[in-house]
Each structure stands twice: as structure tokens, then as C-alpha cells.
Amino acid sequence: MRESSHLSSVTPLAGSRLRLAASRGSETSAARPAAVDAPRGAAPRARARVLLYAARTPDDALVEQLKSRGWSVLVARSAHDIGKLIKPATLCAGIVDMASFPARDLPGLEAGLRQQQVGWIALANPERLADPAVRRLIRHYCFDYVKLPVAHATIDYLVGHAYGMIHLSDADLPPDTTAVSDDEMVGTCEAMQQLFRTIRKVANTDASVFISGESGTGKELTALAIHERSPRRKAPFVPINCGAIAHHLLQSELFGYERGAFTGANQRKIGRVEAANGGTLFLDEIGDLPMESQASLLRFLQEGKIERLGGHESISVDVRIISATHVDLEGAMSEGRFRQDLFHRLCVLRVDEPPLRARGKDIELLAHHILGKFKTDSARKIRGFAPSAIEAMYSYHWPGNVRELINRVRRAIVMAESKLISAEDLDLAQFSEQQTMSLAQAREVAEKRAIEAALLRHRHRLNEAAVDLGISRVTLYRLMSTHGLRDASGDDKGE
Length: 495
Ligand SMILES: Nc1ncnc2c1ncn2[C@@H]1O[C@H](COP(=O)(O)OP(=O)(O)OP(=O)(O)O)[C@@H](O)[C@H]1O
Ligand SMILES: [Mg+2]
Hints:
The protein has 21 helices and 18 strands. It is α/β, with parallel strands linked by helices.
């Protein structure tokens, strides 16, 4: 499931270093021997591998089989048990028997499944798999699933796989994030860990890198991360947005001009390519590069030399090229809008950014990261996200990816009326099926509704509404302020 998405996330096209990535990338974790197939009597382990088995009616024979294979099995018969058994510092594998839990238990199970330190495998029968809620939980939180009935040996094999994956995510450096100056890339899902590994490998080469990904997925951040980890880090990182500069200006922007090259060229101007000498040139939105500029860029890539407009001198420039686009360049090539030869020069190494909806638990991790960064934008003390907000974040499709998540969370920080950001604050109320809320939140909602109804019944005559509600006029006035029910035109009608 998630691992297959990461396998396609990085496609090395050439380069010996990346051949290493290719062999690792194409290796399924099932083929990886370490934690999966370690024989029972093999070298003594410092600690037994922990396995959390969540089932309302656990299969005793399965527990015995897993124990005999060296697992230390903890059985959770309810969502509450899962919460109690998960230890924040212990990475473990998990089995969740979806077939044994009724639909009403699913919201409770979700909190346990969301725990970053457990690599979950789901068991489900065909009826439960028909339930969209079960399918969503498996898609979001589990490494894999099996249809029951299934041989115990298969389950043992898959949990070994999940255990290996969860340790793999944890063991790689850097553990969770990759730091880019004062900004950082957050990600723990396999697709992002794979991306971080690729960034480190790609950074050591001088080959051109082509980054593709939907809008807002972090293409520019990745380009910067590659530069900052490369031997060129002390030289400039020069971005140019090929789509934002008028076509007739692009040539002079890229290659610069000499004094007198055209009317208004009062002095020599150094182009972006030359400005990046010794460093990295980031050609953003390369798909928007007009044909004429494609030809001159190709010439530069072939010769490593530029000529300023109006100049006669060939100037050698040493830059590393990273390019990015959110458009389908293969399509543009087949329609003749993008030169194939240029594409092959630009795309020696390829990085595909995973869309946010494929990043599983990272959605929540990123949301908390953004909240931590921007929470001082609000005078209120915002503590986190309400369950409805978390659920909506996992259900929503995120067409604008991380950028959209940042915008929604920042807006919610300003809009939130309670200490927890709700699905409504994120403007995603329709993506939250179960409007779970704390008792305090439920009281708040009920109170607001009752006041609104009373005001409506009494056409905003406060004395009458207050009598109806059994409170004083002063209290009603205060509560209206708390709930944002006072309108600027004056509250009290007809008194
Ligand atoms: N993994 C991540 N961790 C933290 N922040 C991220 C991550 N990925 C992206 N961002 C943030 O999301 C925003 C969008 O990222 P970026 O500009 O790199 O995306 P992009 O793919 O270039 O977008 P576009 O296609 O719109 O140009 C930035 O503010 C960036 O800092
Ligand atoms: Mg960008």
C-alpha cells in the first residue's frame, strides 16, 4: 500500500549513485531479510519484537504462532486498550482485526491506528472491506491488509514486513525531517523518507535534477534542500520562474545583456544563469519555457557557455541545474510544445514529489508543525485540533497540497473560537462524518444554538429572549459576545 506509492516516487533515470537508489527502490520490503525472516533460534535479540494485536475476539492460535516466532504479543480487545498499550518510545508492529470490531468502534480505533510508532497490518473479511470507513482506515494507516481467512504464516510474514518498515523510517538519518536553513521539510511516511534519502544522494552529484509534482507539494523546498546539502551550498541558489516572466524578457533575464544591446539597456546586466555561477540554477515551471528560450537553454547546457544579449564574448558558466514543473511534460513533448532533447538534458535524475493525500499520518504531523509555527497569530491559546478536524484532514483530497494545508491552518488559527481547531475552522466541515466533540464543545454548541433560536423567536428583543432562556439580560448580552452573536448595527430591537 504505502510502500508501493513510494516506490514510484523516485525514478532514477541514470547515474551510478542512483543505481543504488534504483536497486533499493525496486526492492520490496518483503524481499528485505532483516526483521522479516530472522529465524527463531538465530542470534539472540537484545529485545523481543513487540506486536500489538487489536481484536475484539483474538485468535488464540494466531497469538501462539506469533509468540513462537519470537514476537512479544500484546492483545488489545478495545480501542481503549490500544491507547493504554502503545508506548510512545517503542516502535512496534500491529495487527488490527477489522472483522472483529463493529462499525461503531471504528472512530475509537482510528486514534490508535494513527500512532506513528506502530506499523499496522489489517485483517478484514469481504463484508467489512465493503465498508468505505474500513477501507479508508486501511488506506490511511496500514502498510498492508489481508482478506480473511488467511494462513497464520502469511500474517507473521506481513507483520515482520510492517515492523521492518517502521524501523526503516525511524533509523534513517535525519530521523523525521530534513532541515533546510531555518525552514524544514517535515515527513515520516515512507514516501517522504524515500524522498529524503534521494535528496541526500542526489545532492552529492552534479547531474541535472528534474522535480515533478502537483502544485504545492514542496518542489522548491526540495530543490533548495538538494542545493544546501551539495558541495555548492556556499555558492548562490538562483531560482527563476519561467512561467512568470514575459516571453520577450526571458532571454535577457536568463543570459543578461551588454550596455546598448537594445534601447534602454543603459548598463550591463548579469543574467540569472551567470549569477548562479558555482552554485545551483533552479528553473521553476520549466514547462512554461517558450520554444525560443528552450533552444538557447539547450545550447547552454550542451556547451556550458553563454553569451549576453548584444555581446560577442562566450562566457563559461559552471552551474548545477535543477528544474521543476507541475505540468505533464511528457504530454507537452508529445504535442511538440517541449523539446525532447532538452528534457533529456534536464532530467538526468528525476524526483517525484508525493501528493499530500498519499502521505498518510504526515498530514497530521504537518498540520501540527504549521500550528506550532503560526499559533502566535492568534491571541487565543490554541492547543491543537479537534477530532472532527483531524478526520476531515484525512478525508479531504488536498488539491493544493502542503501549501493549501498551510493556508487552511493559518486561517483556522485566526478563525477558531475554541482552544481546538475544528473541521469548520478549516472550512472542511463536510469532510468530517463523525462530528465527535468533547462535552465542553457540545455544551458550547448547544448553548449557541439555544441563544440563536431564542433571539430569532423574539426578533432580537433581548429582554424577552433572556426571560425565555431563564437568564438575565446582562448574562445574555455577555454570552452573545462570547459566541460572536452581536451584530454591529446594534443588538437590541424594539426596546
Ligand atoms: N515536507 C514539507 N514540510 C514542511 N513544509 C513544506 C513541505 N513541503 C512543502 N512545504 C511548504 O509548502 C509550501 C509550498 O512548497 P513549495 O513552494 O516548495 O511547493 P511547490 O511544489 O514548489 O509549489 P508550486 O507548484 O505551487 O510552485 C512552502 O511554504 C513550503 O515551505
Ligand atoms: Mg514552486
